[in-house]
Backbone:
């Protein structure tokens, strides 16, 4: 809406408070909840954990932000979406790849211009493997040079808040030059063979970043962000 001119400024975000008995039993019934902790992309990962949280951001046209003297943290330079609809719960690498590629195309960024990816990274066996496949397809040889992390390893899967929280984490990675860690990582899984910033945050120049939100039913969104230069 901001980009097409129908709004000059928007306040948007997400919130979730779902740690209740009924909600937890529902997720547990799907057999994707971890019995101990969330360790995305790691060997011996056993599933996800539910978290709670909220994040809100202000999105606005550049001229509007400059005009009010806003402190600009980053620019949203592109986005991509896909709806593969192949299965209610099983992830699909083709749909994920389409969303990532669409974001890169919309942002006019070549794969080698991306330094950091905030992955969807739920900690489930299928999701982490499938997202790794999609990253290989979209980035080719550059995939192995990406800093990739799942902040769900720290805050859990916050469901309706996850996209907003991970957007903020990506902005902060650009702002601070720090890739957040993927916590609880205990060793490499042969199916997940990229650099997931295991256990310790890393200082790295982040010129541009992607944030992946890859949901049930094949609802996939990738946002492309870059640093702002006045």
Residues:
């Amino acid at each position: 809406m901001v980009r097409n001119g129908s709004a000059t400024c928007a306040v948007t975000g997400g919130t979730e408070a779902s740690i209740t008995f009924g909600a937890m039993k529902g997720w547990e019934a799907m057999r994707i909840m971890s019995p101990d902790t969330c360790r995305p992309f790691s060997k011996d990962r056993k599933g996800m954990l539910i978290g709670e949280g909220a994040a809100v951001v202000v999105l606005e046209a550049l001229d509007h932000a400059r005009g009010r003297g806003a402190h600009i943290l980053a620019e949203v330079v592109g986005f991509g979406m896909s709806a593969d609809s192949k299965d209610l719960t099983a992830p699909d690498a083709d749909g994920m790849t389409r969303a990532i590629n669409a974001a890169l195309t919309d942002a006019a960024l070549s794969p080698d211009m991306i330094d950091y990816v905030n992955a969807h990274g739920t900690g489930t066996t299928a999701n982490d493997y499938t997202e790794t496949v999609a990253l290989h397809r979209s980035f080719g040889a550059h995939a192995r040079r990406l800093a990739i992390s799942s902040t769900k390893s720290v805050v859990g899967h916050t469901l309706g808040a996850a996209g907003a929280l991970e957007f903020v984490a990506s902005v902060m990675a650009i702002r601070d030059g720090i890739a957040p860690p993927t916590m609880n990582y205990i060793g490499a899984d042969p199916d997940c063979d990229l650099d997931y910033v295991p256990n310790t945050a890393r200082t790295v120049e982040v010129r541009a970043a992607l944030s992946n939100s890859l949901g049930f039913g094949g609802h996939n969104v990738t946002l492309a962000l870059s640093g702002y230069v006045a």
